[in-house]
């Protein structure tokens, strides 16, 4: 089961089965339906134990949804000798997940791997605009354009002078046929570039 907030619908429960374990059981492929807004939701087994954290869906297919296994997260935390905290005001990454690792996955077009690492990084550094930008690019690669728009918008909200955020969002708006919004973002990116 997944308990999340798809499209802002708080406390939505969906169920399914484990379709496969991937990447040495670090990634769990599930059939429980998820939508944008479900990222970070707990994946529960029939006993109610958390077995993973929902990270992404593959928009090109049907019911191709993924979670990071709880064991993988637990191992990473134990390896780094830190406790996971809900907030990290110093903007340090206690999980040891580096943005460099996530960007490397992105360079090799491993969008699912990149999305997983960017989501972990965001969990540790929620105010890091670079992580939100990377997450948006990974979500675009996975075909989840709505989530990519939200990621770019969050990056811009965190750093309003981030020209690349406006540029990426403009390209995506164009792809979605939202040309007026794309034009406004391009103007803002150009203005920031001239400063």
Structural features, described:
The structure is a single chain. The protein is of the alpha+beta class and 195 residues long. 46% of the residues lie in helices and 16% in strands. The chain has 2 domains: 1-72, Thrombin, subunit H, CATH 2.40.10; 86-195, Alpha Horseshoe (Serine Threonine Protein Phosphatase 5, Tetratricopeptide repeat). It contains 7 helices and 7 strands; from the N terminus they run βββββββααααααα. The strands form 2 sheets. It has a 5-stranded antiparallel beta sheet. Strands 1-2 form a two-stranded antiparallel ribbon. Strand 1 and strand 2 (12-14) form a beta hairpin. The longest helix has 16 residues, at 179-194. 38% of the residues are buried.
Under CATH, the homologous superfamily of the largest domain reads: Tetratricopeptide repeat domain
**Strand line-up in the sheet with most strands:** 3-4-7-6-5
- CATH topology label of the largest domain: Serine Threonine Protein Phosphatase 5, Tetratricopeptide repeat
Class from secondary-structure proportions = alpha+beta
> Roughly what is the average pLDDT, rounded to an integer?
80
Regions with little confidence, pLDDT below 50 for 5+ residues: 80-96
Percentage of residues in helical conformation: 40-55%
Roughly how many Å is the radius of gyration?
Answer: 17 Å
How would you sum up the global shape? globular
Main sheet overview: 5 strands, antiparallel
């Amino acid at each position: 089961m997944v308990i999340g907030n798809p499209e802002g619908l708080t406390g939505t429960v969906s169920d399914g089965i484990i379709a496969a374990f991937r990447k040495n059981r670090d990634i769990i492929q599930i059939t429980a339906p998820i939508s944008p807004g479900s990222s970070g939701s707990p994946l529960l087994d029939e006993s109610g134990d958390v077995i993973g954290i929902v990270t992404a869906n593959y928009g090109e297919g049907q019911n191709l949804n993924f979670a990071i296994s709880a064991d993988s997260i637990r191992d990473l935390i134990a390896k780094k000798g830190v406790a996971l905290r809900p907030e990290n005001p110093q903007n340090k990454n206690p999980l040891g997940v580096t943005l460099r690792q996530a960007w490397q996955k992105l360079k090799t077009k491993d969008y699912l791997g990149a999305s997983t690492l960017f989501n972990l990084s965001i969990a540790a550094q929620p105010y890091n605009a670079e992580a939100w930008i990377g997450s948006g690019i990974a979500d675009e690669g996975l075909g989840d354009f709505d989530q990519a728009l939200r990621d770019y918008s969050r990056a811009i909200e965190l750093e309003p002078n981030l020209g690349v955020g406006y540029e990426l969002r403009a390209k995506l708006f164009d792809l979605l046929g939202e040309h007026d919004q794309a034009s406004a973002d391009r103007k803002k990116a150009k203005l920031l570039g001239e400063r």
